[in-house]
Design goal:
The chain is an alpha+beta fold. It is 30% helix and 32% strand. It has one helix spanning 14-25; strands at 5-10, 30-36. The longest helix is centred in the middle third of the chain and has 12 residues, at 14-25. The chain is flat, with a radius of gyration of 11 Å. The N and C termini lie far apart (35 Å). Keywords: DNA-binding.
């Protein structure tokens, strides 16, 4: 049984944030649950 890793991406550059989300989305056991431009 594998559990899903849930990730919140915090990155101010939208292109980098979207690229990371796309790459992580290719993995079966990783789910990007939120994306934010600021971490504070």
């Amino acid at each position: 049984m594998t559990s899903t890793i849930r990730v919140l991406l915090a990155e101010d550059q939208s292109m980098v944030r979207e690229a990371l989300a796309a790459l992580l989305g290719l993995e079966d056991d990783i789910e990007v649950v939120a994306q934010v431009a600021r971490g504070d």
